[in-house]
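Honest question from a wet-lab person: if I give you the sequences of every part of a complex, can you actually get the arrangement of the whole thing, not just the pieces? Trying it with mine:
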Amino acid sequence: VISPRRLRQRSHLLTVARSFFLARGYVEVDTPIRLPVLLPEAHIKPFSAEGWYLQTSPELCMKRLLARGCSKLFQICHCFRREEAGRYHQEEFSLLEWYRSGWSYRELMQECEEFIRQLVRSGEGFAGIAGPDQLRWQGRSVSLDSPWERLTVDEAFRRHAGMTPREAMQRGLFDELLVTRVEPRLGWSRPVFLHDYPAELASLARLKEGEPAVAERFELYIGGIELANGFSELTDPDEQRVRFAEELKKSTETGSPYREMPEQFLADLDHLPETAGAALGFDRLCMMLMACRTVAEAMCMPVPRYA
Amino acid sequence: MYSASDLRKGLKIQIDGEPYIVIDFEFSKPGKGQALYRTKMRNMITGNQFTNTYRSNDKFEKPDLEERTMQFLYSQDDEYHFMDTSSYEQIFLTREQLGDNLNYLVDNMEVQVLFFGSKPIDISLPTFVNLEVIKADPWVKGDTSGTDTKPVTVQTGYVVSVPPFVEVGDRIQIDTRTGEYITRVKD
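Yes, you can. This is the full assembly:
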């Protein structure tokens, strides 16, 4: 069970997170968590709820709001992903997700940096915070000084996995090499933004101009832990339909229940301006700052089976 | 059938017709990627260990394992014979299969024999066993050599560290999980 001290620290981080976005003119929203249709992502399995589904992220609802003219939104909400349980996973967890119209993933990476630095500066007496811009994670210190490293997926795979991401995908080894060879080496001296993912691995992200084999997607890593995922959002409904069709096809192989094209979402997408968005695993960030061993230890009330 | 999401430490699964126990397990999954179940297993018959990474679609048979209470009768050469106390059925395990269990095994002891199908593959002993000391250095009162334990040999041939007051003919209790002396017993 979480200690009163950790509960207070978690609550403090929630407050600071809200102030950060509110001070920058973002609007906080709370959209429905039970939905009749979800965005198909072959490797993310939802829980069903009386014929509908529990959200796996608030992306669908938030983009629909953006399409209606809201330009800066954030949300801190519970999400549900079936069969994700381990040291750094829980089937129910808190996601901090935010969107900003007019931005690309570049500006968003910068904001990610500022957000985490502000949280760390605000935290007094946190076991995982070693100084104003310094974390202590698994016995090693990670400096948060600017600039954080930017590393393309291509470079990371060549450096740590001994092959290109393309080769890894052709051999069906991309995820395995990412998890065993690449991720454990990322973000130990400073945080790293891994970016420019193979297009097939970013069905909701815009393709990079002049380099259509990759999508404008990033993942933030600190001390080997994946903390946040962001995109320049794909805003073209025709292209999005093609990408969703791919995900729907893959879903029959992965055993995910997505069968339906999210038509209403695609109709709204037509009105979505250029936007960038990111989702950050709030429990994982709490875990790091409070120096917990597992993500469950950073939650208010972890599910007993995996605690 | 088990699926990959059932994997966890201590789970027993069947692979290629043999029983394995999961001894280490780690779930990993890139946010948008596939779930990977990195699993270290020990073959319950041969003791061999191996590591493999499974994916969500992988399935495993449940091994046909059963524990039966049996009594140790006698050993002949390298074969150790046990009897089911209700059916009087007799089976044996080899010296190699019993390994360190032999340090604590004495005639008439009741143990749990683990069967894979009809084949006995392992035993588990009571947590505490009482064994007789057959060899010990005498206790010299006032000995100030500084050592507060001494080695003694029990009836199975096992050598264990005990306090200096334990003597030949004493019965002592040993924890079979650690192999350590617990106390001197009167029985």
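Two things worth pointing out. The helical segments of chain B are 95-98. Chain B touches chain A at residues 5, 26-36, 38, 53, 56-57 (CB under 8 Å).
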